Amino acid sequence: DVARFEEAVGWPTGAGLSPYRFDALVSFAFNVGEGAYKLSVKSLADQGNYTAAAVKMRLYNKATLNGVKQVLPVLEARRRRETKLLLLGVYK
Description:
By secondary structure, this protein is mostly helical. It contains 6 helices and 2 strands.
């Protein structure tokens, strides 16, 4: 399944990304979907504006439960890990 999201990010070239940035973006794309990735973060990452990309990524922390969009701590934690990886290269 992950190959599709690697391609969305830019595999095999990785658009000049370091391995940790590539990993962070693939994780994000895999979790939010290829369309959401391309609409929200791809252009910023392609421009090298990783801070702005991280800000956009952090917005994807909600899910609809019982018809109401709610911030989910598990999604906040996932976005925090992905953006930490994107900006700092930290895998934990």
